[in-house]
Prior knowledge:
The chain is of the alpha+beta class.
Amino acid sequence: MGLFKVEIEETAHQDIATCVAFVLNVSKEAAIKLVNEIYDQIHSLESYPERNPLFEMQKTFPHLLRKQIINKRYLAIYSIEGNLVKVYRFLDSRRNFESLLK
Length: 102
C-alpha cells in the first residue's frame, strides 16, 4: 500500500477557518487544539483513504466522494483520484449543509 498525496481545496480551508473561528470565540486553547486535530486527521488520509464510508450526496460532484468524521461533529468530504486525495469541503455535521454543496 503506497502513500497518497492529500490536497486540500481552498473551499475546505475556508470551511475549516469558519469552524475554528466559531470555537475561538469560546476558547483560544480549544481552537488551537481543534485546528491541529483537523489537519492531523485530514493528513491521516495519506494512508488508506478508502477506510471511510461513501458520502451519499453524489449529485453535486463529478467524483465518487467519501466522508471522514472528525471530532465527532465535522465531515471532511473528499475523493480519491489515483494516488491523490482531494478534500473539497469541511462541514459541521450539525448544520443543514446540502445548500452549501450546490
